[in-house]
Amino acid sequence: MTALLAGEDEPQLPKNVIVADVGLHVVGLGYQRNLTPQLAVQLTASLYVPWTQSAVGVESTQVAGLIGRLRLFVYPQAQAPRGFWLSPFVQAGAANETRDGAVQRGVVWAAGASAGWAWLPWNRLHLALGFGVQYHWAKFPAGPGFGRFWPQIDGSVGFAL
Q1: Cα 149 → chain centroid
Q2: Is residue 5 part of a domain?
Q3: Where are the alpha helices (DSSP H) in the chain?
Q4: Number of structural domains, the chain?
């Protein structure tokens, strides 16, 4: 803003962001590309460990796997990759379920949407935080699998190029 008051051009916003995704169910690494000032696309590869499916008690259960996630970010204020955003996404991958010592492999997927805010300090550090809901689904050969809606927290730290 001070650059505009001084008659200088505002610095151009970066088009690419390398992100570390640290959401509620995942830890991953990805790439985000601005397609327009209002729209960005992001692709991440992540370790998937849904807290909603890990339990200790009479039966001990753990689900863990690898997923790929594709998401769009809509920036209504046309300042991608910063400011308020809305983001639908889909993800899919493979996971192991360990239940009382028995391991089985299966498939997992989810779809959901979030709303949040992204900051761009120094026009390089990318910080984003959002909240939303997603539908998680998993199928394992011997069952039981799962499928239901869960809340989600999106968080990422990145470097804008």
Answers
A1: 16
A2: no
A3: 2-5
A4: 1
How distant, in Å, are the alpha carbons of 19, 63, 125, 149 from that of 152?
Answer: 18, 17, 23, 10
Answer yes or no: are the C-beta atoms of 110 and 135 closer than 8 Å. yes
Q: Over pLDDT 90: what percentage of the chain?
A: 68
**Pick from 92, 74, 93: which is nearest to 34 by CA?**
74
What mean pLDDT comes out for the span 125-154?
A: 92
Supply the pLDDT for residue 146: 87
The CATH number assigned to the domain holding 118 equals 2.40.160
Residue 68 resides in a domain: yes
CB-based contact 159:124 (threshold 8 Å) = yes
pLDDT at 50: 80
- Rounded to two decimals, the pTM is 0.86
Range of the domain at 82: 13-160
Average pLDDT of the residues in 29-55: 90
Are 98 and 62 in contact, with CB atoms under 8 Å apart?
Answer: yes
Note whether residue 4 is domain-resident: no
Does 6 reside within a domain?
A: no
Q: Rounded to an integer, what distance in angstroms lies between the CA atom of residue 114 and that of residue 86?
A: 6
User: For residue 76, what are its two tokens?
Assistant: 């209504």
For residue 56, the model assigns a pLDDT of: 52
